[in-house]
Design a protein that fits this description.
Elements (H helix, E strand, L loop, with lengths): L1 E6 L12 H9 L5 E5 L14 H7 L2 E3 L15 E5 L4 E9 L5 E8 L3 E7 L4 H16 L5 E6 L16 E4 L15 E6 L2 E8 L5 H4 L5 E7 L1
Parallel strand pairs: 1-2, 7-8
Antiparallel strand pairs: 1-12, 2-4, 3-4, 5-6, 6-7, 8-10, 9-10, 11-12
Length: 224
């Protein structure tokens, strides 16, 4: 199964234009089965979707997982999940995370065999450590093969991930930020036991280099 994580920066590209069609074109060309998004909703007010659900359904092979708490957002705290049309999903869930700034995660079980979690961690390491610890505790309540993807906001290659070490293997497929000149592997994937990484990479095309300030990151996983 091919999984993708993409911080779409509220669909605002490096040319300062908000263009959800451009973002969706980047996603469509990845061939991913499941797409985890960050900054998929606008930041203020009722947080309307920056990538409208109607546009996704009409102009792509994907459908949004129902994760929003209202009728205008795509997800929760800007986190959203898309799945290829016809994919069986179960137990969509919003997860609140601790920290000074509002942060969260979203979760869904895909095809009865894999739990996918999308998250966007805080800017301060001490908050990120607490957030990962909270996610680890949530996962202990219902063990199953799990892929955790998102913008982890961690510049270090080793520090800040202690809460995942016992149960997850962390992967940084490549430098994804800043899209114009990638210097940091902020977008990462953590795989639980029972999952094997088959392949991984960063989507670096002329369009992805301008559609957001992050490049999409993908992994192909299989059950062991």
């Amino acid at each position: 199964m091919k999984l993708l994580t993409y911080n779409i920066r509220k669909a605002i590209g490096l040319d300062r234009r908000r263009d959800p069609h451009r973002v969706l074109e980047v996603i469509n060309h990845t061939g991913a089965d499941v797409v985890v998004l960050q900054e998929a909703d606008r930041r203020l007010g009722n947080r309307p979707a920056a990538l409208p659900a109607r546009l996704i359904v009409e102009d792509s092979d994907y459908t949004p997982v129902p994760l929003a708490a209202n009728g205008i957002s795509l997800g929760s705290h800007g986190n959203a999940i898309l799945v290829r049309k016809g994919t069986e999903v179960a137990l969509p869930r919003r997860i609140e995370l601790p920290g000074f700034e509002p942060r969260g995660a979203v979760s869904v079980e895909v095809a009865g065999q894999l739990r996918v979690i999308g998250t966007h961690l805080g800017l301060m390491r001490r908050h990120r450590v607490r957030q990962l610890s909270a996610l680890a505790e949530v996962l202990d309540d219902h063990p199953m093969p799990t892929a955790m993807l998102g913008d982890f906001n961690e510049w270090s290659a080793a520090q800040g991930f202690e809460a995942l070490h016992d149960d997850f293997t962390l992967h940084a497929p490549g430098r994804s930020f800043h899209a114009a000149r990638p210097m940091a592997a902020l977008d990462r994937v953590a795989l639980s036991s029972g999952l094997e990484l088959r392949d991984a990479g960063v989507v670096e095309t002329p369009l992805s280099r301008i559609a957001s300030d992050h490049l999409p990151v993908w992994v192909e996983v299989a059950a062991r």
